[in-house]
Design goal:
alpha/beta, Rossmann fold, six-stranded mixed beta sheet, 10 helices, 24% strand, binds NADPH dihydro-nicotinamide-adenine-dinucleotide phosphate
Length: 272
Amino acid sequence: MDRYCVFGNPIAHSKSPDIHAAFAVQTGQQLEYTKRLAPVDGFAAAVQAFIAEGGKGANVTVPFKLEAHKLAGALTIRAQAAGAVNTLLFDEHGITGDNTDGAGLVADILVNAGAAIAGRRVLLLGAGGAARGAVLPLLEQRPRELVIANRTVATADALVRQFAALGGEGVLSACGFGDIAGSFDIVVNATSASLQAELPPIAPSVFHPGTLALDMMYGKEPTVFLTFAASHGAVPRDGLGMLVEQAAEAFLGWRGVRPQTAAILETMRQTL
Ligand code: NDP
C-alpha cells in the first residue's frame, strides 16, 4: 500500500490524516496516511527515513515549510513563488516540493464560498509564509486590485517587488494597517494574530455589506477577526475550507485525481 504522512512539530492536532483517509475512501485509492513528529533539528533525516520505508509523498506543516523548500531537489512554480513547501512528492526523480496552500485558499473562495475574485478588490492581511503562498494563486484569478497590508510594511513591499513581473504590475500594492484605503470585496486574514486572539488593527471601513471575510485560522469558535468582520456587515468564513482544499490539491498531485470536497468539509466541520 502506498504510504504518505504529514510532518510537523507538534503534530498531534493535525487533521490531515482524517482528510486524506476520507479522500482515499471516496476515490477508491489504496493508501496509508499517518502523522509523523519530526524533531525540530531532524526534519531532513525524518524525510529520508520515510523515503527509505517506501514513502511516496508527505505534507509539511509548522515549523518545517521553509526547510522542506530547501530540501526539495525540484520545485513547482507556485512553491518557488511561495518560498515555502507544504507538499512533497518522492519518486525516481528525487524530492519535488509543491505549495498547495494558496490554491486551496482560491478553491475555497471560488467553489465553497461561491465568490468571484476576477475584477474584485482583494485585501490580504499579513506577509508571512501563508500570505506569500497566496499571492500568485490570487493574482492568477485577475483581481482588479490586491492590497497587502502588514505590521512590518517592508515585508509587504518586498512581496510587491517579487510579484511585479508575475502579474502584480498595476494590481498589487502594499501598506501598513493604518493606511488601507476604501472597502474590499474580499478580505483575507493571513496574519497569525488570531492565534493570540488578537485583531490586526484595521478600520471597519475595509468591509462593506457582503464582503467575504476569510480568516486562515479555524476552530470551534469564530476568531476575533471574524467576529469583528461580521459585526460590520461581512460574511465570515474560517480556514477549514482552505485546509481541506489544500489537501485535495496535494492528493491530486500524488494520485492524479482531485477528490470532491464538499461532503468531507462538512464532516470535518462537525468534528471540530
Ligand atoms: P508567519 O509567522 O509566517 O507570518 C505571520 C504574519 O502575521 C506576519 O505577516 C506577521 O507580521 C503577522 N502578525 C503576527 N502577529 C500579529 C499581530 N499581533 N498583529 C498583526 N499582525 C501580526 O505565519 P503563517 O503565514 O505561516 O501563518 C499565518 C496564519 O495562517 C496562521 O494562523 C496559520 O495557522 C494560518 N494558516 C492556515 C492554513 C490553512 O490551511 N487554513 C495554512 C497555512 C497557514 P510581521 O511581518 O510584522 O511579523
